[in-house]
Amino acid sequence: MNGMENSGKGRTQKLPMNANTTAGADKASTDSPGVIVFPPALVLGTLLLSIVLNLKWPLHFPRLMWMKVAGGLLFILGGFLLAWGRRTMVRAGTNVPPHKPTLAIVTEGPFRFTRNPLYVGGTAAYIGLGLGFNLAWALILLVPMLFLLSWGIIRREEHYLEKKFGKTYLAYKTRVRRWL
């Protein structure tokens, strides 16, 4: 046969598997940090879990106005930092989602102050929502969420960036703190 097969729905072509055809696929699958969860899914999932726990076992702080104000401010500031970091990454020409290859080390904008402005912003917004809506469970679940964020996402990204960019990333890492 000529490499074409009739599958019942039309003709398909079988391509030979060799080093040339699989090299690009292998590189694409390994050129990412291999994070354990998509970061927004971790934050939103933890927030949803806190709401479910609050419905099942209500747990609240005393209702104080300063907590609503502080929560609102944290949410706004966190959202601003997150958006600023994302916009800076896009302008630098690198991918934002961690499952895609990093194309450049970004050192401008909020990346001058923290290596992880998207995670700092997302965490601040999460705490803000917990305070603003009086979700004590959200603050209780903050500790395991931050553990997963640090171990399952940030450390894996740092290891990936060290391997990919070497001394350039290590120099940046010594100048700028992980959080704030």
Walk me through what this model shows.
It is a single chain. The protein is built from seven helices and two strands, in the order ββααααααα. The chain is mainly alpha-helical and 180 residues long. It has one domain. Strands 1-2 form a two-stranded antiparallel sheet. α2 packs parallel to α4, α2 runs antiparallel to α6 and α3 packs antiparallel against α4. It starts with a strand and ends in a 5-residue tail after the last helix. The N terminus is likely disordered.
Q: Distance between termini? A: 64 Å
Poorly predicted runs: 1-7, 9-26
The portion of residues assigned to helices is 55-70%
Number of strands: 2
Strand content: under 5%
Largest sheet: 2 strands, antiparallel
Query: Whole-number radius of gyration?
Result: 22 Å
In the sheet with the most strands, the strands line up as 1-2
- Per DSSP, the total helix count is 7
Structural class: mainly alpha
The H/E string reads: EEHHHHHHH
Counted up, domains total 1
Shape: elongated
**Overall mean pLDDT:** 88
